[in-house]
Amino acid sequence: MSSSFAERKSIILDLLMEEGSVGVSDLARKLNVTVVTARADLAALEEEGLLVRTHGGAVPAQHSKIRERMQAYKGIKGDIAKAAAAMIEDGDTIIVSAGTTTALIAKYLLGKKSIHIVTNNTLLLSYTRTNPQVRVTLVGGEFRPEEEGVVGPMALIALDQFHVSKAFIGIDGASVKQGFTAHFVESADLVRKMAEQADQVVVLSDSAKFGKPGFARILPFDAADALVTDHDLTKEFEKELAIADVRIIKS
Question: Where are the transmembrane segments (predicted)?
Fold first, then answer.
């Protein structure tokens, strides 16, 4: 198979998401490399904080709920994140909220220059470690492994210090009545604060979340400037978003 570490890294992380663990011998066979190389790859990924080594193999560093979310609609999420990243210009300072789709934005920033990201998204860090053109300010607060994000009063206070050109926010659900929503009140409060600090608010979501509102309201539709989604958004929601003057970008 591939001899490039970057390619093997992607395969290993995919296997961990799909299977929940990998064994060294099985991994070496699948990658068509020696057991020594497979062990070295796992050691390197552990150094990056992407997995935890076990006796004879490795398990993911992320919470199981995060792994499930990363796997769901994987291709669609990548397309949405790529389309969102295309909206970022050289020299931009942006806010990125916690979420598996929003984290992928950083993956598609290669080639852009002098980008500064303010975020509570710890998952995003794995995509920025090797990009010298991306500067990250991580807000403080309580870390929640099931969200791979930081929340709480400290994070809200920290956000008061920033003004950014664009906020890229993730959601857990949406409905005509409630607008954009989250599962948890603390998450909704933080994302709403992020939106307040930005000149432009861009929502990232696959269409499957529409019609399935979460517990806590983040923003009404008309508080967003754009939605990046897939091609399966219903005509009903397209109409409601158009009324709210939200630009729809389909990836």
Answer: none
